[in-house]
Amino acid sequence: MYFLTGWPRRLLCPLKSEEEPFHIHPNSQRFYFAVLSETQLSIWFSRPSVMIVSYIESVKAAAQFGFYQQAEWKPDDSMIAVAAANGYILMFDVVGGGEDKYLYEPVYPKGSPRVKVTPGYKEEQCAPALSLEMKRPIDLEAPITSIKSLQEDLLVSTADGYLHILHWDGVSNGRKAISLCTVPFSLDLQSARGGPSLDLEGLYIRDMEYCVTLDGFAVVLDDGRLGFISPVASRFTAEQLQGVWAADVTDGTCVAVNNKYRLMAFGCASGSVLVYMIDTTTGSMQLSHKLELTPKHFPDVWNKTGAVKLIRWSPDYSVAMVTWEYGGLSLWSVFGAHLICTLGEDFAYRSDGTKKDPIKISSMCWGAEGYHLWVITSREEAELVENMEGAPPPTQTKQAGILQFHLIKSALTVNPCTSNQEQVLLHGEDRLYLTCGDPTQVPSSSSDGPNTPHPHNLAHGLEGSPLHHRSAPSPNSISQGLSTLLGHKHWHVVQVQPHKLHSFRIQKFAAIDTAGQCIAVAGRRGFAHYSMSTRKWKLFGNITQEQNMTVTGGLAWWNDFVVVACYNFTDRQEELRLYLRSSNLDNAFASVTKLHSDTLLLNVFRDLIVLFRADCSIFLYSIERRHDGPNPSACVELLQEVSMSRYIPHPALVVSVTLTSVRTETGIALKAPQQACMAESIMLNLAGQLIMLQRDRSGPQVREKEDQKKLLPFCPPVVLAQCVENVWTTCRSNKKKRHLLEALWLSCGEAGMKVWLPLFPRDHRKPHSFLSRRIMLPFHINIYPLAVLFEDALVLGASNETVLYDGLQFSNHCLCPLEVTFPYCTVERTSQIYLHHILRQLLVRNLGEQALLLAQSCAALPYFPHVMELMVHVVLEEEATSREPIPDPLLPTVAKFITEFPLFLQTIVHCARKTEYALWNYLFAAVGNPKDLFEECLMAQDLDTAASYLIILQNMEVPAVSRQHATLLFNTALEQGKWDLCRHMIRFLKAIGSGEMETPPPTPTTQEPSSTGGFEFFRNRSISLSQSADGIAAGKFNLQKTFSMPSGSERWSKDSDCAENMYIDMMLWRHARHLLEQVRLKDLGCFSAQLGFELIGWLCRERTRVARLDDFVMALKCLHKDFLWPFPVIPACSTSSPFKDGHRKTGEVLSIKCYFTPPTIPT
């Protein structure tokens, strides 16, 4: 979701001052930041990050008003209110310096065509010159505890228990004061009239924040209680306010509200963050989830952080940054998935193992679009870092204690239409990170030709496509191309060059096409797209057109068209535009559709566009490709309008809108492959609630004519899941993997992931009436999901990694620069298998038939054996280590399920080898006796697996049983020529005969099996005798003995191991006799060379027995056949008889030429 990158940087203050800043607050658009020190108010600009104006209070005024404490911006950025320590509110007017006055201007290369001719160049690229003018102060006669902006008013809480409502002008309309004691508080709104009420005598509000979508204030009282105050009517008066409070919480410290998800995050003195929601039925505060460090991941600091000091939601409200009293930063997703923490690993420890002091923070805020985190360290932290960096010279400007952390985020946070893509796309302030695979393995869709289709569309063979007559690749080829996403650990980094993209002051939206070869990026004005194949950007040729539009609803790709929901400044009109990728980026080549309301969200499903507008309505448009000109164009036509105003209280609550082919009657629709391509339902993420609107097919189904495009209405919405952050679905279809492709995948924060899986009857049988059509299955993963590979059954994600850069040239920790204090942060690609979780959940619910169908569809995956191992291992660990008896164990069901696959034997033994010996009895009680499994391996000629089972037997049975099974395996390995395995078996048999008693060892060796059968650990293995005290001395003697494989004849000359070797020698002699009896001299030579068998001496001993040759002709033929030698051939010219009239000619020499291949010496 969000990830730290690089090192933080320290901002320099151009003014010399002895005061350290302690408070920072951004304006509404986060372009300006108000920074407070004790008697100084400064305004900083975002890009470049420089101070543009500063107001320093006089000594006399500072004595009257007191030191500055907090600041708040007016919504239109024209004023700043500052709370002073003596109860004064100081109002400052922010005055612009005029159109031609700028403090900083960028310098570009000479000859750049996009410099000063760009409209709005000054506003976009230059830091403005501002001034601060103080107005008449307002005395509230009590210390100020909190100050918040409320549209045209300013709400101030004071330590005397009052809420003051001030107008921003401060003079003309006066002010109102509301006593907190007069506001009725109850547990819910239903009991507000007659139920228990909270006594607020002597209490005041410590911290508060206004929530627009809840229309009220979340407050933390002085005694640590949490509450929510909302007006009965639209005006804030004492008689029209009511409050609810959270029960059983008395240690609240701070609060931050999430307007998009309607959540209130309260920091507590215990170090945890309680996230509450308002029950729409009763109006009470309900605990949604907690944000807290767990002892599992942070055993050293989980209860030593101190109280929560600050909570800050990101600008898109998808993550929250938390800091504590004793320092440190931690980042969570909106529903509790933990992303980053600076209290552990390289953030907390140096390379030599010494512990660092965590960074202590007095104030922080997010920058524009969430790409930066502005942090002001505490005074002692600033002094420490200043001492570490050395005292600056007297002439050097003093450094302000402002740190700026750099972050990159997923494109899903602001452009959720990319959730149906299978690539991970991250974007930062000036660059993009994507995980697309090797372009050479992607089909021809990577070219920039106008008629280039996407691979998904080719796989479907869409009607009406101009390339429909071409041969479409099979779905297997598409899946193979998607699997290339796993073959690369590096990122493709695309730099957004500021001197070319002037309007891209900061990236707002980014989208990638289905093939992963084209990226569209939108900034404050205009947009551009980039080709991965040509490594070039395509920009607007007419800069005026670029400046006259801004993307509002997001970006998406449809085939080779960019779909843009934008606002036209010239016509003051919301528009839907489609630009052809291969054409020039110009409005003359765009398809423009006028819209009547602001577009908030955009998504594409096959040939349909879905728009969510500010009036809470959903519009469906069809797209058709046309060739009525020199360049292809797109025709957009409105199909359907769906009003959601009855169900959506505020349009800003909608996180994403998606068209899918998912429907509840999938279980009975066996002819679904062609219907799976249709848009059957709308998925709406409403503040974390996933709402489904399915087409109403309850009425009479009338066959429509081809020229009609009337669509069925939608049923009332149904809530599918809660706490949903992201949704993934696909428009592809695959008959072999319908479970995965027709499922709906959800990311639910701390709860992990969920899948809404379809259930299909087997062999076209009629489903049972009690069988549900779909089932929601939860499962946990160890990464934060950013993309789902549907056919490959994988989840892609990213994680933060750190690199230490200390201790090399700085031996003294007290003289380290800032870059050494913090580790260098990188973002690594991650992936995780989820199939075993789904199979297990199906087996738990007695849906073994569905689990078998799903597993059989994925059996061809290269990591399917690992999936089976994981499922057995997880169930075994949970059940075998459970302290309470399990009434219905799952392991026997899992074992029976795995027997349906040919890798059953390998799965069990691999899982056992990676599990503790104490759990083996439980495992084999469920899967079967290891001796029987060993014999099955021998019958199946799977000797490597049998070798692994032999290790199990050696640890569970007496040595006699191990020797018996080892002999069987040794003879089989000799017959099949498995020489590596034979050498390990010799070592194994020698180890057994060297002194093991007739009891199995109490603890096994759990080393990983080797690729040659799993006996590598016997090279240096010592055989234990007993655990009794009497056997210690003998055990020490045997510990000094190792059984390694001697080379040559050394092994056969040891007299001390004569008894141990005799048994092995007898088997080797028996096998040598067997080979010699069958005249297999080549195999005999290999046998001797591989195992060090002394062949010459053995042949001498056997010269009168098996080595005696009785049938020379048969032996000669077998020899030629064994070495593939040809027999001697007499040439035709030499076939005349040497005898004449029965007598041999005198002096005539008989010459017979024999042609044969010289023999080869076996190795």
Automatic annotation (TrEMBL):
Its main location: membrane. Residues 836-994 form the RIC1 C-terminal alpha solenoid region domain. GO terms for biological process: intracellular protein transport; retrograde transport, endosome to Golgi. Residues 437-479 are annotated as: Disordered. One of its GO terms (cellular component) is Ric1-Rgp1 guanyl-nucleotide exchange factor complex. Residues 441-450 have a biased composition (Polar residues). The keyword Cytoplasm does not apply. It is found in: Membrane. InterPro entries: Ric1 (IPR040096), RIC1_C (IPR009771), WD40/YVTN_repeat-like_dom_sf (IPR015943), WD40_repeat_dom_sf (IPR036322). Transmembrane segments: none annotated. It holds the Pfam family Beta-prop_RIC1_2nd. Keywords: Membrane. Coiled coil: none annotated. This is Protein RIC1 homolog. It comes from Oncorhynchus kisutch (Coho salmon). The gene is RIC1.
